[in-house]
Amino acid sequence: MYTAMKTHGLLFAAGGLSEHDVDKGLSLAKRVHPKYRPVFEKLSETDRAAVALYFLPHGSKKDVLEVTRPRVVKWYCPFADQREFPSGHRYSINVYTGCNHQCRYCYVNGYSARQPGCKSRFRQDLCKDLEALEALGVPPAPVHLSNSTDALQPLEQEHRHTLFTLQKLAEHRNRFTTVALLTKNPAALTDDRYIEVLHQLNELPADHPRRHWFVENGFSPLRLEVSLAFFDDQHRRLLDPMAPSVENRMEAIRFLRKQGLPVFLRIDPLFPHDPLGGSKTMADFGLPDIQSTSDLESLVRFGREVGVRGVVYSVAKITRPQQGGLSPVMDEMKRIYQRISGDQPLMSRGGSWRLPANVANEQIVGPFLELCERQSLVAKACKTNLITTP
Length: 390
Ligand code: SF4
Description:
eight-stranded mixed β-sheet; binds iron/sulfur cluster
């Protein structure tokens, strides 16, 4: 049966593009900004046209086009040069705006000062984007919930937009490869309605175009990435004061694992804990040892015992919030960064400071990786994890 669908103001035959659509998509793709071009060049003509029609503005008179069209199922990180994201297009859905957890190290505070809230028309817009993906026949890609907000923050209990999103993704499963959900509140997932849809998402349908490839390579089509960077709850309270407690998150992870769901432990971010090789302690900077070696060992051991699929880490950035100055704890942390960097200046980028790579590797990443290796857990840096998520 022939059905037609109106999307982005154009009429498409459902389930495929006409020759005219393909020509239109290819002509849009020719004008795409060079930073996105590597993604488009890798695709077949039909797929390139579909991706262009979904992401690029159809009526723009500009010579160079940015990826701006969709409403909520958006291009993952439109700021990044895609040569650094070699695995093709990927989606991001930020279910809510702002975040209640108030993590002192939150990088989102550096570019958005929004209060936690719902997006107006979120559900309608989500459905429209999903219909557009179907109508255009956009090839499947990974989808990440939520990078700039926690999709399971307290708003979820009242509004259930994340549950709705997961259910819609399950209905349109063939448009997505991995569904990745990052949260500090895994306890929200222990409700039967979430468990049911998570099991659905964790199984690619028999007619999914990438199913065999996923099965052959042992990739999980669902990733529940639970962020747990501290073992001592007092230290957790200092750094992510409004997020659920350590024990609450551990309990939820145990539950999700017992349900056979794939959990990845994000010990993220990592902080220094031995500022000057023993000659100074964290206490000299007015801070407790928030991530001691034994705390990290306990977290990694916990991950191995409950059977997480892997560990994800990144070294903490000191981000200057858009409103107000650094919190006292991050102000002290910046002083520690300056001390352990010695003669090298901190790397300053986009309103945040980072340790020079050699210092971060030597003092934080190297010892952490050894620790994960001792527990036979695969650990990936945050960006590597992202671009290797198929
Ligand atoms: S949970 Fe994530 S988005 Fe929310 S405040 Fe913490 S770091 Fe920021």
